[in-house]
Write a structure and sequence with these properties.
The complex is a heterodimer of chains A (about 160) and B (about 70). Chain A is mainly α. Helices cover about 80% and strands about 0% of the residues of chain A. In chain A, helix 1 runs antiparallel to helix 2 and helix 1 runs antiparallel to helix 6. Chain A starts with a helix and ends with a helix. Helix content of chain B is about 55%, strand content about 10%. The model of chain B has no long low-confidence stretch (mean pLDDT about 95). The chains are: A mainly alpha (about 160), B mainly alpha (about 70).
Chain lengths: ~160, ~70
């Protein structure tokens, strides 16, 4: 497959994000909050988050360094097409992140504005609920951004 | 696409210059040259001028705008 260094780098980021944060999401969703105090559940979730952040940093540094060794300085920096693709894809990611921020704000403001609690929390009992809505929106926006970037690279490479 | 080009033809008449050589000469990646030749990407004016200058041709001889309206 004919891929530029930037496209390879995007593939690595996409796979690493899906695997590491997929693992994190599964672990957090499976924390049984009915059997432990909220404080303990929060601590367990933060433990998983620290692990996920550490994994993503190590994986990104290792694999991005590996592919950069094979490329020239120009390949590593990218060119105008790489920048245009990145900007277009950033736009898609921005919309997903914005929706996540609006959802989080709604979740936080609902009790104050309408005097009612959101029922979403009851259906998805995860520790630090608002933090996770925001975090998952960020992760989803990154996945959308990387996927859109790859689609744009593949369309041009046909 | 409204903008077409004769970059492939220019490379052929320049002793079959490779895409990599052209890419390095104008400061883009080989994949970008491929996308330009397939009319899937319109380069910036700067890169278009650099390509034309490299083949010693005026810009309009390498790139052409087709009015589709």
């Amino acid at each position: 497959m004919n891929m530029s260094l930037k496209e390879k780098s995007t593939w690595i980021s996409l796979v690493a994000t899906v695997l590491v944060f997929g693992w994190y999401a599964l672990n957090v969703v499976n924390i049984d909050m009915s059997n432990m105090p909220e404080k303990d559940a929060n601590a367990v979730a933060m433990g998983y988050l620290s692990g996920a952040i550490l994994y993503i940093i190590v994986i990104e540094i290792a694999f991005q360094s590996l592919i950069s060794i094979a490329g020239t300085k120009a390949d590593v920096e990218g060119d105008e097409r790489d920048r245009m693709i990145a900007l277009t894809a950033n736009n898609s990611g921005y919309w997903v992140l914005s929706i996540g921020v609006i959802l989080t704000l709604g979740q936080l403001l609902l009790p104050h504005l309408l005097g009612m609690e959101s029922s979403i929390r009851e259906h998805f009992p995860v520790p630090l609920f608002e933090v996770h809505v925001l975090l998952f929106a960020f992760i989803l926006s990154e996945i959308v951004r990387f996927t859109h970037q790859i689609i744009l690279y593949r369309r041009d490479a046909v | 696409m409204a903008i077409t080009n004769k970059v492939r033809e220019c490379r052929f008449f320049a002793d079959e210059m490779t895409q990599q050589t052209l890419a390095e000469a104008v400061g883009v990646t080989r994949q970008t040259i491929m996308a330009i030749e397939k009319n899937k990407y319109n380069p910036s004016l700067e890169v278009a001028f650099k390509i034309a200058k490299l083949f010693d041709k005026p810009l309009e001889e390498v790139f052409a705008y087709i009015d589709e309206g």
